[in-house]
Every structure is written in C-alpha cells, then in structure tokens.
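User: Hello! I'm new to structural biology and keep hearing that structure can be predicted from sequence alone. Could you demonstrate with Iron-binding protein IscA? Please show me the input and the output so I can see what each looks like.

Assistant: Of course. The first part below is the input, the amino acid sequence of Iron-binding protein IscA. The second part is the output, the predicted structure written as tokens.
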Amino acid sequence: MALTLTETAAERVHNFLAKRGKGIGLRLGVRTSGCSGFMYTVDYADAVEAGDQVFESRGVKLIVAAKSLAFLDGMEVDFVREGLNEGFKFRNPNVKGACGCGESFSV
C-alpha cells in the first residue's frame, strides 16, 4: 500500500497547516458522488481515528480511512496551477474512467 505527495503538494500542505496553526496532516478519501461513481475528499486531519491508515510522504502525514484504502492505493497527489485555477491533482492508477467535467471517477 502506497500513497505519495509530489514536492509541490507537500510544500503546499506544510504551508496550509502552518497558516491554520493546528493539524497533524491531510485526510484523503473517497465518497460516492458524481456521474462516474466516486469523488475524492481532502481535508485537514486533526487526529487519527480508529481504523485509519497513516502514510508519510515528504514529511507530511496522510491519513486515510479504511473504507477508502483500496481506491487510493498507489496514488500520487500533486498541487498544480493552471491559469487562474489551482488545486490538488490526483494521479490514481486504480481509475478506469472519469466524467467529462473531471469531478468524479470509476474504478
């Protein structure tokens, strides 16, 4: 089981947490949504809950609930700027298809 951040994403998370003033890392997951089936969730992590798996990449703790592990195995998270937009980009080898708007995916 592996989950990684690019250097750019790790730097962004470090900056977010420093500005926020608290938190132990980033919580990543999936939920049922959209036209393709699943959508990524990203939030600050203030604690590790029962059943969570903790990964560390470039000095950042990545916390994933057990129910999301199979969907995220092998994923790399990047932070990109495209024109006026910026955000996390997910490179997930488990994805078999995505909707046209890019908000949801299928495995």
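User: So the tokens describe the shape?

Assistant: Right, they're a compact way of writing down the 3D structure. Reading them back into a model, for example: The two ends are 17 Å apart (CA to CA).
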